[in-house]
Description:
23 strands, single chain, 810 residues, 6-stranded mixed β-barrel, 23 helices, alpha+beta
Amino acid sequence: MIKNWLHIFLFQIKNNKLFTALNVLGLSIGIAGLIFAILYWNDEQSYNDWNPEKDTVFQSISQVSKDMVWASNVAAFEPYFKKSFPELEAYCYLENWYYEEIVQYKSKKEILRITDAQNTFFEFFPFNFSKGSAKTALKDNNAIAISEDAAARLFGSDDPMGKEVRYSGRTLVVRGVYTIPGKSSMAPMAVTNLIEPKLKENANHWGNFNHGLLLKFKNPADKDKVISRMEKILFENRAVKWAKDEGITLEEWIKKNGSESTGIILEPLANARLHSVVDGYAEGRGNYQFLLIMVGLSILILILSIVNYINLATANAIKRAKEVGVRKILGASKVNIIKQFIFETTLITLFSILLALVIVELSLPYYNEFLNKKLIIHGEQFYLQLIGIFFFTIAVAGVFPAFYVANFETLKVLKGNFGRSKSGVWLRNGMLILQFSIATFFIIGSYIVYQQVQHLNTKDLGFKGEQVLSVRYRNTYDWREKDYMKKLFSRYYTIKNEVSKIKGVEQVSTGSFSFGGDSSSSSSFEYNEVTIQGQNMGIDFGMLEMMKIQLKEGRYLSDKFASDTINAMLVNETTLKMMKEKNPIGKEVEWNGKKLKIVGVVKDFNLFSPQSEVPPMVFFHFKTIDWMLGNASRIHVKVNGENMEQTIADIEKFWLKNVDNEYPFEYDFVDKAFARTFETYVKQRNLFSLLNFIVILIALFGLFALASYSIQRRMKEIAIRKTLGAETAVLLKELSKQYIIFCLIGFAIALFPVYYLLNKWLENFAYRIEISFIPFVVGFIVLLILTLIVVLSRAYQATRLDVLKYLKYE
C-alpha cells in the first residue's frame, strides 16, 4: 500500500512541479524562521540553567532614587550579614564586571577577563574544578583561580597549580583551575580575592555604592524578611543619621530625598539574564522583548506557511478529484484516502524540514553576526523541538486537505462537478483573509520600525562626534601608592601635550565618561529644598568645545580663570529645571561637602543613547574634584580629515612606545561608538524588513493558490461568458473583485493589533515618533497592488482559455 502511495506521490510531483515547489519552499522558509528563533530562545533561556544555586542566589539591587536603580551596594552591610541574618547561608561582595588586564607567567602574557570577589564566590557560581577545589581556590588575597582556557594559553602543557603569575603589579599563586558548565551571568577567565581592602575602606560609608552583592538563602521564601531588615538598616544609617547631621526632622529629610533612597530589590539569579531591572552582571542582560519579537514573528510566519500549504493543497485537489473518485469506486475507503494524503504531507514536511535545516546551516554565520552570538545546531532539547514542529505541521497542514479530498462525492467528481460546501469555501477564504492580515501587520510594522530608527539616526544628539577618536586609556597607578594623584595628573598632561604635537591632531581632551557608555559616577546634591541625583561629569578644559556641546547661558570652564580649577561648575538644562532656578549663574551649590559656583548652563545632550532621557548632569574640572580623573578611561582626540589614516598611525606609534606597550592600541570614532547604542533597534528594523519580504512572498504563494483554485472552479462559467460575448476587461473585473474585498477585510483586521503592538514597542524610547496614518495608507496600497498583480495575471491567463475544452461535454 505504501509503495503504491509513494508511486502516486512521485507521479503528482512530476505533473505538478510548480505547486510542489511552492509547497516545499513555503514550508521550508516558515520552519527555518522558527528554527532560528528556537536557537536564539534556547541560548538565552539556558543562562544559569546549569547552576544548582540559581534559585537560592539573589543579587542585591539598590534603589537610590525614584527613577534610578543600581546593581551596586554599600560595603557597610557586611558586619550585619555576619550577625543579623540567619536566613542567609552566605554572602559575596564582588566587582560584577570584568577587569581586562594582563596576566603574565614568565615571558608569556595574556589579556584575561578577571572578576575580583570575596572567597565565597564559588559558592554562588559552583564551576567544575579540574585542579584544586572551590573551597581553597581563593583562600587568601595572594590566590588566583583560572579557567582551563586561560591555563592553556598561559601555561601550555605545564601544570598551573602553585605557579606564580604577575597581575597588576602583584604576584599571585594559581590555586585552582575550573571549567564553566554552561552559559553563566558571570563567566570570568580568572577570579581574584583582592576586594577586601576596598571593602574595609568603605566599611563606614553609607553613601558609597561601589560593589556588587550576592546573597545565598537557606530558604528563598525568606527574601521579603531580608529585604525588610536591609531597608531598616539603610534607613537607620542613612535617613535617620543624615537627618540628624543636617539638623532637620526625619519627615523633612524623607520629603526632600524620597523614601526610595533606602530601597532594596533582591533578584534571583534564575531571572538575571532576561528579567532583571538592571544590567547587573558582567555577561550583560538579554533583550527579552527582542526575543519575544523574534519568536512571535517566526510563529506568525510558520502559521502563514501552513495556511499557504493548505491553500495550495486544496487548490491542487481539483486536479486529483477524479483520481480520488476512481480510487473510491475501486474500493478505497475515506480513511484510506485520508491516510494517503497525510502520508504525502508527511513526506513533504520531512523534506521541508531537511531543506529548512540546510537553509539554517548556510545562514547561521550571518545570523550569529546579526545577534553577536555563536549559535550551533545541536542539543537534545533542540531535536525534541524539531520533532514537535514536524508533528505540529503534519497535524495542522495535513488533516484538512486530507479530509477535504476524501469527502469528494464520487459520482459528481467523475462527471466534472468539483463543487464543495459553502463552509469549505468560507474556510479557504478565511485563511486567505488571515494571510492578508499577517502581510498587513508586517508591511505596516516594518514601515513604523523604519521610521523610528530613522528618527534616532537623524535626531540632534547635542554633540558632534565626527573625526573625534576615543582612545582607550588605562590608569596604571594604584590609588593607595604615594603621590597617586600627582602621578595621575602628570601622566595625563604629558600624553595630552605629546599627542597634540602629532601632525593632523587638532585637539586633545578627555572626560570621566564615554559617549554611548556611562559617566561612571553619580552623586546627589540639594538646591531649593530639592535633592538632585546628578551624573558627575569630570572634564578637562576644551572637552565640551571639542565635542561642540553648546551652552544655554554663562560660559565654558577655561584656564583663563584660576577659580575654574577650584570651585566652578556647570549644570545641564535638565539639572536646571530640577533646581527651579531662573538665574543660576553665580549661585552656589553644596556638592559632597564642597561649595561650588555655577558659571554656565550646558544644553542637554545625549550621553547614554538616543532612546534614553537626558539625565541631570554636573560638570567640573578634574582639579576641582581630582579623584574623577581616575575614572577617565578614554582620551578624546580630534583629528584633521585630510590625512586621517597617517595621523591615526602616528598616534598608535606614539601610544605603543610611550603610553602602553602591553595592550593593543584601541580606538573608535565617537559617532560610530554612539550609533552602536541603538544597534539593537537597527537590527530589529533589518529583521522586520527581511521578514516582511518573506511574509509577502509566502502570502503571494497563497494568493496565487487561491486565485488558481477559484478560477479553476469557474472555468466553465468563463467559457460560457466568452461564448456569449463577454469582454476580457469585464471578466477580469468579475474575477478579481472578491480578492479586493478579502484584501480590505484582512487589512481591517490587522489595524488594531499592529497599532497596539507597535505602540508598545515605541514605549522603549524616550524620543519616539507618533504613529501617523501614513504607514497604514502605504500598507494598504502595497497590499492592494500586490494582490491585483497576482490575481489579474492569473485571471488574464484564464480569459485566454480554449472554450471548446470546457464546453465539449455540454
